[in-house]
Write a structure and sequence with these properties.
Shape: rod-shaped
Strand content: under 5%
Structural class: mainly alpha
Helix content: 55-70%
Number of helices: 9
Length: 203
Amino acid sequence: MEYNTSLPRLIIPEYGRNVQKMVDHLLTVEDREDRNRQAQNLVEIIGNLNPQVRDVPDFKHKLWDHLYIMSDFKLDVDGPYPAPDPETFEARPNDMPYPASSATYRHYGNITRKMVEYTAELEAGEEKEALKKAVANHMKKTYLLWNKDNVEDSVILEDMNRLAKGRLKLNEVSLSEKSDLVGTTGNKKKYSKKRKKRYKGKK
């Protein structure tokens, strides 16, 4: 009995071992005209076995590329497309830049930091005053969701001042109560009592 672990590695596993065997056989065909004909037939077989590939633009080119890849770039045929360069597949992809973020005040999130920065850059006026209060309340809500405990308004305003690098005057900003921002357990208790009454009434 043959186990897959003892067999040669499949170059493109999605096509299966039988297709790989046909590609390997194609490399042994000495007559060039016959090899070209069989390569064309094999591309058609691959396309029929994997109809989803046909949804890809220029899918024929993709199938021929896969044929060359499965032959380890050793196939010599007169295909309609040039063989792909092996170095293209060996090259290491470019590193993806990862957005840098400070660990300080991470619980507020990067978007909140940007909101504070935007508020600090606004010209003095009603819009800036309204936005200061809105952002501060959002920071308090975020803090409460992260910490679950109560928090003094002075802590939130101090954090906001540091994020704004002292560019915001927050002395006169008053924040909403915790119950207005994240709700209270009282509503849950009332809801639970209503459910109990309904349940007793059905008995």
